[in-house]
Design a protein that fits this description.
With 473 residues, the chain is an alpha+beta fold. Among the domains are: 30 residues, no CATH class; 98 residues, conserved putative lor/sdh protein from methanococcus maripaludis s2 fold, CATH 2.40.420.20; 104 residues, no CATH class; 77 residues, Beta Barrel (Elongation Factor Tu (Ef-tu), domain 3). Helices cover 22% and strands 34% of the residues. Strands 7, 9, 24, 25, 26, 27 and 28 form a 7-stranded antiparallel β-sheet that branches. Strands 10-19-22-21-20-23 form a 6-stranded antiparallel β-barrel. Helix 7 packs antiparallel against helix 8. The longest helix has 17 residues. GO terms for molecular function: transition metal ion binding; transmembrane transporter activity. It comes from Nitrobacter winogradskyi (strain ATCC 25391 / DSM 10237 / CIP 104748 / NCIMB 11846 / Nb-255). Keywords: Ion transport, Signal, Transport. Belongs to the membrane fusion protein (MFP) (TC 8.A.1) family.
Length: 473
């Protein structure tokens, strides 16, 4: 007899008994006892399909959101319902139906099933491992022996896989290195004599003073200059030949007599007792080695001057970063004595040697210093812009899987298909990596959770290498 008919007869018997003794015996039964007495629970359990697989957790018998990892009872003594693997909500790809497994029209054909834990074990039919996990189906077209990996959409959503198009971008970064301010060697001058001389007068300038071009520095008497001046004057007075006058003038010039002093002899027709030496350029007095009354020998440096309107910054670049620096690269310089102020310049020279002790190479930057606030030997913080100004094929750093011996990116081919591809990388900077070979502009690469796809690819390759051909159906 059908279960519903049995239940109807039981209820009719209860109603027929009315409020008599039979009902008095059963009216005090709890609901659960009544259901057991009537056999309703067993009937419904027989009507519903039983779950398969291991017990995952236990749920409240009334369907409330109350769960337990171990067997448990409610407050009124009812046992929690065991939820098995087949009854749990899952985002994994469903096991293939019989139609799919048998290859009926319109369905993908399953080639075999592989172990879910990556072991070299396959089966021609659906099965479970020792822990109750279902073997993973391998469909026709997936096991093509290539490098394409298929990932279910549910797994992609849970793992957060993201991809983006490959574009041409400018790859660069700021290289921060220490530096030191130095004088421009081309803007240093000395004041010296080319013959014996006696100092008659010294200007009131000392080391550190600023001088201007043409400013008087020293007056001195030189016997050799006086003799050459007398000869030049004699040739002028007797109206000598041009060649003789030219020879006398040349001798004065060879002795280092300034042109204005020679012009004065020619104009006044007199040889002065002392010759005036002037500053050859604007600048700062670095050295003063002269005092009044002293005798100066040929070649003695009387004054050393330096023009600081343009100075050098010598930066120490590590050897491994040297290839990223190029001539003309923009540079920003900051000094600690001038907080909040920066100076712009460009790389003018990369010195052709590396320090043996420091393993650094010096890079020279020219900086304009019109107000003279940058002084020699100041410490500088240098930021050098590296990279080429032209855009190149580049991807985010997160898209590159670098093992040390090879670099790989994951190509997104759509529909859950991914392909690992070896690439050759170039410059890196500002979160981007230049790709010189392997991919092209317009390809789509995975930029997040790509290591999971790479692991799946390695697992696939390992399975193909470990599983003997005869083990496959």
């Amino acid at each position: 007899m059908k279960p519903l008919a049995l239940m109807g007869l039981a209820l009719a018997a209860i109603l027929a008994a009315g409020a008599g003794g039979y009902w008095a015996g059963v009216r005090n039964l709890p609901i659960t006892g009544l259901r057991e007495w009537l056999g309703v629970e067993a009937t419904f359990a027989a009507a519903e399909p039983a779950g398969t697989g291991a017990v995952i957790y236990y749920q409240d018998p009334d369907g409330k959101p109350a769960y337990s990892a171990t067997p448990r009872k409610t407050a009124d003594g009812r046992a929690f319902r065991a939820v098995r693997a087949s009854e749990d909500v899952s985002f994994e790809e469903k096991q293939p139906t019989t139609a799919e497994a048998t290859g009926q029209p319109g369905a993908r054909r399953v080639l075999y099933y592989r172990n879910p834990m990556g072991l070299p074990d396959t089966s021609p039919t659906p099965k479970k491992d020792s822990m109750g996990m279902d073997y993973i189906p391998v469909y026709e077209g997936e096991d093509d022996g290539g490098s394409v990996v298929r990932v279910s959409l549910g797994k992609l959503q849970r793992t957060g896989v993201r991809s983006e198009l490959v574009k041409r971008r400018t790859v660069g970064r700021l290289m921060r290195v220490p530096g030191m301010i130095q004088l421009d060697e081309r803007r240093i001058s000395v004041v010296a004599t080319r013959s014996d001389a006696f100092v008659n007068e010294v200007a009131n300038v000392t080391t550190g003073d600023r001088v201007t071009k043409g400013q008087v520095l020293v007056r001195l008497y030189s016997p050799d200059i006086a003799a050459a001046g007398a000869l030049f004057l004699s040739d002028l007075n007797i109206g000598g030949r041009d060649g003789a006058i030219g020879g006398a003038r040349q001798r004065l010039e060879n002795l280092g007599v300034p042109p204005e002093a020679i012009a004065e002899i020619e104009r006044t027709r007199k040889v002065p007792l002392s010759i005036t030496w002037r500053a050859p350029r604007d600048g700062v007095v670095l050295e003063r080695n002269v005092v009044e009354g002293m005798k100066a020998a040929p070649g003695d440096v009387l004054f050393r001057l330096a023009d600081i309107s343009t100075i050098w910054v010598l930066a120490d670049v590590p050897e491994f970063d040297l290839a990223a620096v190029r001539i003309g690269a923009p540079v920003t310089v900051r000094v600690r004595s001038l907080p909040g102020r920066s100076f712009e310049g460009r790389v003018s020279l990369i010195y052709p040697q590396v320090g043996e002790a420091t393993r650094t190479a010096r890079v020279r930057i020219e900086i304009a210093n019109p107000d003279g606030v940058l002084l020699p030997n100041m410490y500088a913080e240098v930021e050098i812009g590296t990279g080429d100004a032209a855009p190149v094929v580049a991807v985010p750093d997160s898209a590159v899987i670098d093992t040390g011996t090879r670099q790989v990116v994951i190509i997104d081919r759509g529909d859950g298909r991914f392909e690992p591809r070896d690439v050759k990388i170039g410059l890196r900077g500002e979160g981007l990596t230049e790709i010189r070979e392997g991919i092209a502009e317009g390809d789509r690469v995975v930029v997040a959770a790509n290591f999971l796809i790479d692991a799946e690819s390695n697992l696939k390759a390992a399975l193909r290498g470990l599983t003997p051909p005869e083990a496959r159906p």
